[in-house]
Amino acid sequence: VVVAAARVPQREATEDRVREAVLMRSDGSTQRMRHLALAVSLERSSPGAFEDLARHFDAADERDRAARYAVRAGDAAVQALAFDRAAALYLLAIERARSEAGSADLYRKLGDALLHAGSNAPAGRAYLEAARRSDGHSAVDLTRRGAEQLLMVGEVDTGLAAWRKRSTPWA
Fold first, then answer.
1. What is the pTM of this model?
2. Alpha carbon 156 to its chain's center
3. How far apart are the C-alpha atoms of 158 and 101, rounded to whole Å?
């Protein structure tokens, strides 16, 4: 039993290499079709495999579905304290989303993940982008957070300019 259990990772690695080899020999259309079939199958059999679903829907050029699952995978990564992974997934969602709806919240989530990952300057820029897509007090708070992060890492001119530009809700 112990010997059989030790072989499972090797078998999975071999299966991954075979799968990659088959996909690499296919044309782009066939690859997209296979990724879509994998994603649909995963959706039914493993609905909680958000990151895999996001990656396969992305490879199938199903942008909206990829974005939706990337957000859910990012949220799960935050819960697991995997902030770098969460930031990458939120960025994937931002890049794939066709709709601007909810984009301010996505940029805020990206900023939070980057901040917790220790990437203050990128976090500041993400907060400022979230502020640009927001209004009212939310925009002011996001601008403050973005400017604060930029100032903390020495980007004084950029941080002050951002704060001056939008320091009141009516500006």
1. 0.78
2. 28
3. 27
What long-range pairs does 9-13 form, CB within 8 A, spacing at least 24?
Answer: none
Distance CA 50, CA 95 (A): 17
3-state SS of 29-84?
HHHHHHHHHHHHHHHHHCCCCHHHHHHHHHHCCCHHHHHHHHHHHHHHHHHCCCHH
Please write down the long-range contacts of 26-35, taking CB distance under 8 Å and 24 or more positions apart: 31/59, 32/59, 32/60, 32/61, 33/60, 35/59, 35/60
- 26 residue type, one letter: S
Three-state secondary structure call for residue 51? helix
Question: Which amino acid is it at 85?
Answer: R
Looking at residue 93, what DSSP letter applies?
H
Q: Which amino acid is at 27?
A: D
pLDDT in single tens digits along all 171 residues of the chain: 444 444 445 555 676 676 666 666 667 788 888 888 888 888 888 878 899 999 999 999 999 999 999 999 999 999 999 999 999 999 999 999 877 767 999 999 999 999 999 999 999 999 999 999 998 899 999 999 999 999 999 999 998 998 887 755 544
39 contacts 56 by C-beta, under 8 angstroms = yes
Tell me which amino acid residue 138 is: S
